[in-house]
Amino acid sequence: MLARIRIVLCSTTHPGNIGAAARAMKTMGLTRLALVNPRFFPDEQATALAAGADDVLAAAKVYASLVDALQGTILVVGMTARRRDLSHEMRPVREVAQRVADEVQQGDVALVFGTEMAGLSNAELDACQMLANIPAQPGFSSLNLAASVQIAAYELRQALLQDRGAVGRDYPLASHEEMESFYQHLERVLRGSGFLNPAQPGRLMIRLRRLFSRARMEREETSILRGILKALYPADDGSSRPF
């Protein structure tokens, strides 16, 4: 199950943090590292701070966008220290690790970490189904990137080492790309029908993402909803993209 967990680092500015994160991953048995637009990689500082986790660095994949890095996942968890307006529900990382341990039996799961200074952007948070935080001292809760990866990796390992019995679903969950296609289809229909005014979109799509993220939709359910959208608004041919 550890091989199905993907650690995603977005726009990392210091290569040493990539190496230290790789080392933190390897100590807990995690091997899949994804880098989204790192400022410097590969880099000697990354190799030096990996301190023996060179294999994790060598296998790391670099992506041009977070969307590309999340392909094939069924659950995306955003790691953040701050609660954002209208963001998904945020839970302690230990609690989220238990959820991940259940769902990773169905497919790949990604934990996404933001930049060292600003964390995850609002757009990056929108790509997540749930948020996790590391409970720390109020007023001084900002952790080093590699330290955050270490704590999250530890909690995931402990959750997966538990005897979870026969945990699973009868039907597969929708993948990240299937959900994104659904959101795009939904937005096109809402715009085409006039329900969503492109000039004043407000936060409708953000709220709808929150709603369906809580539902943890199955693949068949996604297909049903897209079929309903197509039946209600057959004028949509998918040619216009919402973004």
Could you walk me through the main structural features you see in this protein, from its secondary elements to its overall organization?
There is one protein chain. This protein has 243 residues and is of the alpha/beta class. The protein folds into 2 domains: 2-161, 3-Layer(aba) Sandwich (Alpha/beta knot), CATH 3.40.1280; 176-232, Helicase, Ruva Protein, domain 3, CATH 1.10.8. It contains 10 helices and 7 strands. It has helices spanning 15-27, 44-50, 54-59, 66-69, 93-103, 122-126, 145-161, 176-193, 204-215, 219-232; strands at residues 5-10, 32-36, 61-63, 73-79, 90-92, 108-113, 130-133. Strands 3-2-1-6-4-7-5 form a 7-stranded parallel sheet. Helix 1 (15-27) links the parallel strand 1 (5-10) and strand 2 (32-36). Helix 1 (15-27) runs parallel beside helix 7 (145-161). The two termini are 35 Å apart. The mean pLDDT is 90.
Short summary of the structure?
The chain is of the alpha/beta class and 243 residues long. It has helices at residues 15-27, 44-50, 54-59, 66-69, 93-103, 122-126, 145-161, 176-193, 204-215, 219-232, and strands at 5-10, 32-36, 61-63, 73-79, 90-92, 108-113, 130-133.
